[in-house]
Structure formats: structure tokens, C-alpha cells
Design brief:
alpha+beta, 3-stranded antiparallel beta sheet, 8 strands
Length: 144
């Protein structure tokens, strides 16, 4: 796995987004509303009762691009199969810049990762990870 693929996978997991459109199916048990595991949702999700009929968007439920589903009727509890496509049609420039900064920082930090001298030692990985998390948290607040 290339460094950029690993960074993209890490960013997707941390932000709960797919960078590229990806068809996804989730099973949800209980009563809607639901929050989908991945975003952004770019098209109307298909929600089907397990072994039953499909729900109709804007009649039975409404949805948001952030992955939230709300019932418009009392649908009761059931097992729901939710199919949707998550991912950006075009990754936002702010997120692309954040990913590029993370990759640059990881490459720059790859020289000395840890060092020990007698009883004293330190590791740069934890510091680098905190910088990356801070960068992504800033992106979430400003652009997401």
C-alpha cells in the first residue's frame, strides 16, 4: 500500500467520509432515525424493510447529505437495509490541502522516529499524529 493510500484510508476513517464515491449497504436494527456510517451522501438512499417493501423518499423518510435519516411516518422497529453511495464527486480543496500537508509532514518526520540515550527516550510519532488530528479537526470545523 502506497503512503498516499494509507493516509487517505486514515483520513476517511477519522472523518467518516469516503473520498471517492463508493456504493455502501448497511443494516440498521430498530426504529429510524439513523445516522449512516459514511458521508457525504450524494444521492437518495434506498431503504428496505428486511424481506419487505422499499420506503419512498420524501413520503416515508427524509435524508441529508451528512448521512442522517428521519422517518416522516411511524415506521415502527424493524431490520432496515440501507443502500447508498457515499463520497465526494470532487474532494473539497480544503480537504485535499489538509491531506497534502499530512503527507508532507509524515515524509519530513520519517528521518528520526525515536531516539534513546540512557534512561531518556522520545518518540516523534505521537507528536506527528496529534498535529495530523489537529489539522483534520480544524478542517472539520471550517469546511465540513
Amino acid at each position: 500500500m502506497a503512503l498516499s493510500d494509507a493516509i487517505n484510508a486514515w483520513v476517511e476513517g477519522y472523518l467518516a467520509v469516503k473520498l471517492n464515491p463508493t456504493a455502501t449497504t448497511e443494516e440498521y436494527v430498530g426504529a429510524l432515525p439513523s445516522i449512516l456510517n459514511w458521508g457525504p451522501v450524494e444521492s437518495v438512499p434506498t431503504i428496505t424493510r428486511k424481506g419487505g417493501a422499499a420506503l419512498v423518499a420524501d413520503t416515508d423518510f427524509t435524508w441529508s447529505t451528512e448521512g442522517q435519516l428521519w422517518p416522516l411516518l411511524d415506521l415502527g422497529e424493524d431490520i432496515w437495509e440501507i443502500a447508498y453511495t457515499a463520497g465526494y464527486a470532487a474532494v473539497p480543496a480544503g480537504l485535499t490541502a489538509a491531506i497534502a500537508q499530512i503527507q508532507t509532514a509524515i515524509v519530513a518526520d520519517s528521518g528520526i522516529i525515536s531516539e534513546s540515550l540512557g534512561d531518556y527516550s522520545y518518540t516523534l510519532i505521537a507528536q506527528a499524529s496529534m498535529r495530523h488530528l489537529f489539522l483534520l479537526d480544524t478542517y472539520k470545523r471550517l469546511f465540513a
